[in-house]
Amino acid sequence: MHQRPLGNTGRSVSALGLGTWQLGADWGEVDEADALAVLTTAADAGVTLFDTADVYGDGRSEQLIGRFLRERGAHEITVATKMGRRLPQEKANYSPENFRAWTDRSRRNLGVDTLDLVQLHCPPSSVIDDASTYDELERLVDDGAIAAYGVSVETSAQALSAISRPGVTNVQIILNPFRLKPLDEVLPAAADAGVAIFARVPLASGLLSGRYTSQTRFAADDHRNYNRQGEAFDRGETFSGVDYEEGLAAADELARALGEGVSLPAAVLAWIAALPGVTSVIPGARTRAQAQANADAAELLDGGFDLDAFDAVIRDVYDRRLRTEIHPHW
């Protein structure tokens, strides 16, 4: 597994990480044994980045990761958590008192004195653009509550704003064949600034997994059922904002361009990880098999797969099918 520098922290993280939203909530039920098996499988495959948040299962995801780290003694793993969605996304709620309360709760959930990396969890632009936000995060670093901080964003404009702040370690943004706008400015700016990029929702909430059809039905507590039009949070978080049927057709076109023996999800994960400026791709997993398959995609980075040819297909499909609808929004 390729390991890459995490900004200027002195840490390295794997090119393929693990997103753990699925282990908390909003994707259907995952029992504790299965969740711990996912974490074990990923770590055994060389994954050294777990991405979580304090609201995933109201802390369940953090607690499971904390238990795993204690039982395994996995000191090589960096845990990137997020804060800021335990209250309405209003600027007044991003206060020093709440920053402290949120980080203290995550420290208890994870069972650590210092959090490796805390990311603001898709806050409003007014928070990202405010210099005082970063002053408060620096105080948490000085106090030893967190080792580093970053920002998870919805839009490329927000990413560029965060990248301009000298203390920011990473920016997390949706990046996949259905969401190419970050390639225009965000990735070059991050590379120039030495800011790590975590690519989230890399398989477009499963649309790029090749497993879904028009007949697929999602559970009532799965955001792919209840948030398609942004009813609960930004609609770009669900299927990357792409219409479900159009996404199925685009995914099918991408899959048909692949050679024998290369799956669509593996090709997509490798393509994202190979993009200049991307530090880690953080697909989620609900089963051991998914976690193993995601990690195995890193093997395509070592040759035997024509990433340039696949890149050309991705850009063509995006331009014809998705650019007009998707590019202006995020």
Give a structural overview.
The protein is α/β, with parallel strands linked by helices. Helix content is 39%, strand content 12%. The protein is built from twelve helices and ten strands. The strands form two sheets. The protein has an eight-stranded parallel beta sheet. Strands 1-2 form a two-stranded antiparallel sheet. α1 runs parallel beside α11. The chain is globular and about 55 Å long. The model has no long low-confidence stretch (mean pLDDT 94).
Q: Which stretches of 5+ consecutive residues score pLDDT under 50? A: none
Radius of gyration: 18 Å
Classification by helices and strands: alpha/beta
Beta-strand percentage? 5-15%
Largest sheet: 8 strands, parallel
Q: How would you state the average pLDDT, rounded?
A: 94
| Side-by-side strand order of the widest sheet | 3-4-5-6-7-8-9-10
Order of helices and strands: EEEHEHEHEHHEHEHEHHHEHH
End-to-end gap: 31 Å
The total count of helices amounts to 12
Shape, principal axes of CA atoms: globular
What is the share of helical residues?
Answer: 25-40%
DSSP strand count: 10
